Amino acid sequence: MVQDGETGSRARVRMLAGSLAIQIDEERLEALAESFDAALALVDGVDDLARSVDMSVAEPYDAAWQGEEVKR
Amino acid sequence: MTAAKPILTIRGALHAMDAGELSAVELMATTLARIEETDEDVKAWLDVRPKLLMEAAAVVDRRRSLGKEASPLLGIPIGVKDIVDVAGHQTQCNMAARAAVPPAERDAEVVHQLRRSGALIVGKTVTQEAAAGVISDPCRNPWDTSRIPGGSSGGSGAAIANGTSLGAVGTDTGGSIRIPASLCGVVGLKPTWGRVTGKGIFPLSASLDTPGPLARTVADAVAMYLVMAGRGADVSSTWARFPEGETSLDGKRIGVLGSFFGDRLQAPVASAFAASVATLQELGAEIVECDWTDAAAARAIAMMISRIESAYVHRDALREAPELMGEALRSRVELGSIMPADAYFRLQAARVAVRNSIAALYREHRLDAVSVPTLPATATVSGETHVVYDDGEREEVGPAMTRLTQPWNATGQPVISLPCGFDPAWLPIGMSLVGRPDAELELADIAHAYEQANDFWMQMPKP
């Protein structure tokens, strides 16, 4: 449960972990909140790449390499 | 630090056994003696059963004496990373929670294929806890037993370097074949993702996990790869593809990637890599300097996907017995567990984008392969938390060792890491050659030509 007055990443991490029945003690919570923020920043950092792809179209794993002769 | 006698390879051992100059019993006895002699310090091996192995070797010699044997790896001693099931052996994965796990009832598919090829499974090799890391404690690097062998296939790399196995099975999710290959001075082949089955292998990250071989030479690694991929029938015709002696790289175009792969390297690594590029050019390859601007993104994508998928693997353990997990694994799984589904989907989309961009780079420059340093550094002392660069900059060991390997897990391309030099402390340095999907043999052509042009592969640690 989110504790009174707790906000930001600590609160979000506590809530997410609680919803998954993962026990996070106070000593670990701060470090996990920092890691969580850093991880979300990494994901945000690749968002332009993600948005450049139409994921509604299923393609084979190596589609990027098919259809054109890569070698000379 | 160099060996006084010729290094025994899979090819050399097969040739000697075919010629009647070596028996499987003699080879196994030598292997076991070497383990006995060295493993107290190196600690690469688990669960080696000498009596059974000698009996199995004797059976191999009887089979060979019948003269009708077509098994491609008959009598070759092989180690198996301890996340891969071997029937009758525990698969402990260096995890406290699996200390009392029952022995596997059947072989993993790759082990089954190796046995079908006539290989003899010597035992399990030490890995990092759950294959999630680069230390592989308690295993040590045979070149300097105060140092790490890399990981997570650390025992497999150390066993090859140490001469206690001619080949070993590894797996690679973020570099776990290539990192120990580089730090231990041996060859590691990460095949195209999905081409070698993970059936019977304890997973880390399903969309990244890639089983593959470690061996002394490129040709040996290719032979093992073919067997592991269920193509053992191709092995005998493949040896001729990799002739001993110098071969030409005329007509090959090899990309050398700048920026991301050239920044923050220890000076001896940078020097050795530059020299290896010069050698590739001298062999006839056309060197194409180019840049893959999505490399850092590819690394981030693979790292985060790995964390989320490994959290799925360990979800029950995290709830029920987190105290049995080491701190690094527990932190990794906690983080992966709470990442939003939206993040995972964005990462998968971005992964498609980086696959597109690397394919476009190969197409634009008409590349046969790309060459990069495998790692930015040589082996660190066990217990050290950071790699130190020449300008004093420090980088945590785990992120440092996976920085240049992980992009290729995002793209799923085949990669061969092979020795390309030594630092002043005589610690091995590795170079990686990265190919197009399913071009393992063409990639091996280039790696083999480089290997034959120098003697790095012949070096061995002092006993």
Polypeptide structure, described:
- Helix content of chain A is 51%, strand content 0%.
- Chain A contains 3 helices and no strands.
- Chain A is an all-alpha fold.
- The mean pLDDT of chain A is 83.
- Chain A has helices at residues 8-19, 26-45, 47-51.
- In chain A, helix 1 (8-19) packs across helix 2 (26-45).
- Chain A is elongated, with a radius of gyration of 20 Å.
- Chain B has 463 residues and is of the alpha/beta class.
- Helix content of chain B is 40%, strand content 14%.
- Chain B has 16 helices and 13 strands.
- In chain B, strands 1-3-2-4-6-5-12-13-9-7-8 form an 11-stranded mixed β-sheet, with helices on both faces. Chain B has a two-stranded antiparallel ribbon with strand order 10-11.
- In chain B, helix 9 links the parallel strand 7 and strand 8.
- In chain B, helix 10 (295-313) packs across helix 12 (327-338).
- Chain A binds chain B through residues 13, 16-17, 20-24, 28, 31-32, 35-36, 39-40, 42-43, 45-47, 49-53, 55, 59, 61-62, 64-65, 68, 70-72, and chain B through 192-194, 253, 294, 297, 300-301, 303-304, 307, 315, 318-319, 322, 331, 334-335, 337-339, 343, 345-350, 352-356, 358-360, 362-363, 366-368, 412, 436-438.
Would you spell out the secondary-structure blueprint of this structure?
The complex is a heterodimer of chains A (72) and B (463).
Chain A: H1 8-19, H2 26-45, H3 47-51
Chain B: H1 10-18, H2 24-42, E1 45-46, H3 50-66, E2 77-81, H4 109-116, E3 120-125, H5 154-162, E4 167-172, H6 178-184, E5 187-190, E6 210-215, H7 218-228, H8 235-238, E7 253-257, H9 267-282, E8 286-290, H10 295-313, H11 315-320, H12 327-338, H13 341-365, E9 369-373, E10 386-388, E11 394-396, H14 397-402, H15 407-411, E12 415-422, E13 428-434, H16 440-452
Parallel strand pairs in B: 2-3, 2-4, 7-8, 7-9
Antiparallel strand pairs in B: 1-3, 4-6, 5-6, 5-12, 9-13, 10-11, 12-13
Helix pairs in contact in B: 2-3, 5-6, 10-12, 10-13
